[in-house]
């Protein structure tokens, strides 16, 4: 931090004047909150939510947050996809994230998410806020609008990182929610700033010290993260340059979304990117560029999707209670494993004993395991990880898949099968099984059935299905399946 510049900016800043300047906007904010109460949102029709209708002299949830209240924190830029569902006046129809099936289903889920967010926001439940599946900027704007005394009106990770670095705040924080908390704590512990509102703090940061980062700076931060990823994925300098060249792709995006400032680097979810990728591949200009460039731009899109997939897999990267080394500098070396697993969920790691092959699997599990009590009870082994020690005397699948005993009339389940059941319970979390020293026994004898089932994988809508490993009657009728599934697993056993 430049202490001299900071002190000068502090002396020249007048929080009373800023508060007066924001009075009219805060009156609009109060009117918005008074209108869109939780009770009203619960019954709110889709027309009153979706941007595209404008406000026509009336309140519109998304329009007001993005435009009417822009002076209290901007969420402009990018596309309307951040709202989950939106209205296109040009096409006279709703658009929505495809995973919801229909615009109405999308809206009902988003409306529920907003209500959950308001509850979590009032309770200061940061963990719950992080888990709510709304776009980060949208989520941040809602929180700062309803609870301006609690939540800072700065919404992007790049801006938050810029301010944290400028103020020499180095405590680790992975989520934007945690980054906002760090800046808030800085204010609350400062002898002069402690009496300021959070709106005054953001005004000071953007206008006083260190002042607003320019768009190029934000783009550079995003681009560097992506380029660093590509550098770890290829040894060819030419390939790196090709796969990080977005100029013509962004040109095509402007043609598809003429009234937006959307660029590839604005897209930060695989779901949104998959939709945009389809539109690009159907765009005539993109086809021309791609043909001329020998499919360079198709490969660029593929690599960017890999990047987003890796980001989502490591979404829960930081956690202070983890005892193993999770420094960001060590994350890049796992990129190749992530890419391999995206191709097929089975990977062989070869090498002499003691070189850390098993640790790699456990580390991948740690980095992708949500910070939830039911999966993070053990600080050394996450709940989405299982080690299976292969024995030399394994000559059939019973040690892996279990077996039905004619004597007891029961199915004897293995820890492997129980772990698969647990994985089914947490279908939104990656689960990792490590077969340690698997070549000690003939793989084709003890693991053949599992490999055969693995080959039956197929996509069924949004889900991937396979053939069965254990007869359904055993799962439904024996070993207290229902109780195990609903109670034992919920306790993390």
Brief summary:
This protein has 26 helices and 8 strands. The chain has helices spanning 3-12, 15-21, 23-35, 38-43, 46-49, 61-68, 103-122, 126-131, 136-146, 157-166, 176-188, 198-207, 215-233, 237-243, 247-256, 270-281, 284-292, 296-313, 335-343, 357-368, 398-401, 415-425, 443-446, 448-454, 472-477, 481-488, and strands at 85-88, 93-96, 385-389, 403-405, 410-412, 432-436, 458-460, 463-465. A two-stranded antiparallel sheet has the order 1-2. A two-stranded parallel ribbon has the order 3-6.
Helical content stands at 40-55%
Q: Output mean pLDDT.
A: 80
Query: How many strand segments?
Result: 8
Rg on CA atoms, Å:
26 Å
Please give the domain count: 3
Q: What's the main sheet like?
A: 2 strands, antiparallel
What fraction of residues sit in β-strands?
Answer: 5-15%
Uncertain stretches of 5 or more adjacent residues:
315-332, 487-493
Terminal residue distance: 48 Å
Class based on secondary structure composition and strand pairing:
mainly alpha
Shape: globular
Query: What is the number of helical segments per DSSP (H or I, 4+ residues)?
Result: 26
Biggest sheet: strands side by side, in what order? 1-2
């Amino acid at each position: 931090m430049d202490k001299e510049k900071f002190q000068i900016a502090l002396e020249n800043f007048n929080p009373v004047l800023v508060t007066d300047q924001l009075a009219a906007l805060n009156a609009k904010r109060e009117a918005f909150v008074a209108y869109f109460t939780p009770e009203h949102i619960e019954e709110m029709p889709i027309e009153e939510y979706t941007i595209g209708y404008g406000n026509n002299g009336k309140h519109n949830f998304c329009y007001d947050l993005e435009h009417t209240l822009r002076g209290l924190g901007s969420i402009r830029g990018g596309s309307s996809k951040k709202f989950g569902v939106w209205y296109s006046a040009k096409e006279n129809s709703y658009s929505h994230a495809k995973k919801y099936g229909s615009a109405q289903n999308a809206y009902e889920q988003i409306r529920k998410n907003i209500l959950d967010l308001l509850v979590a926001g009032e309770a200061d439940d940061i963990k719950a806020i992080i888990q709510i599946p709304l776009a980060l900027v949208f989520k941040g704007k809602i929180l700062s609008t309803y609870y301006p005394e609690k939540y800072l009106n700065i919404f992007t990770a790049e801006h938050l990182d810029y301010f944290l670095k400028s103020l020499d705040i180095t405590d680790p924080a992975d989520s934007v929610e945690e980054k906002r908390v760090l800046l808030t704590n800085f204010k609350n512990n400062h002898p002069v700033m402690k009496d300021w509102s959070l709106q005054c703090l953001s005004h000071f940061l953007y206008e006083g010290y260190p002042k607003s980062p320019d768009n190029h700076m934000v783009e550079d931060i995003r681009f560097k993260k992506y380029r660093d990823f590509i550098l770890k994925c290829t040894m060819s300098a030419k390939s790196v340059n090709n796969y990080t060249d977005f100029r013509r792709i962004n040109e095509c995006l402007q043609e598809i979304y003429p009234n937006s400032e959307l660029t590839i680097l604005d897209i930060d979810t695989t779901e949104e990117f998959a939709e945009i990728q389809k539109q690009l591949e159907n765009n005539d200009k993109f086809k021309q560029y791609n043909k001329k460039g020998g499919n360079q731009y198709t490969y660029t899109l593929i690599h960017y999707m890999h990047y987003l997939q890796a980001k989502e897999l490591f979404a829960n990267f930081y956690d202070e209670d983890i005892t193993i080394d999770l420094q960001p500098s060590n994350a890049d070396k796992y990129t190749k494993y992530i890419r391999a697993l995206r191709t097929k969920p089975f990977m062989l790691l070869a090498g002499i004993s003691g070189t850390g092959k098993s640790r790699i699997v456990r580390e991948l599990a740690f980095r992708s395991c949500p910070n939830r009590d039911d999966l993070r009870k053990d600080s050394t082994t996450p709940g989405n990880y299982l080690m299976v020690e292969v024995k030399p005397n394994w000559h059939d699948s019973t040690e892996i898949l279990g077996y039905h005993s004619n004597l007891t009339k029961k199915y004897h389940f293995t820890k492997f099968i129980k772990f698969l059941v647990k994985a089914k319970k947490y279908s939104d979390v990656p689960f990792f099984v490590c077969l340690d020293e698997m070549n000690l026994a003939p793989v084709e004898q003890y693991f053949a059935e599992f490999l055969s089932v693995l080959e039956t994988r197929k996509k069924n809508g949004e889900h991937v299905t396979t053939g069965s490993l254990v007869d359904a009657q055993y799962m439904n009728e024996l070993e207290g399946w229902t109780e195990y599934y609903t109670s034992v697993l919920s306790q993390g056993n």
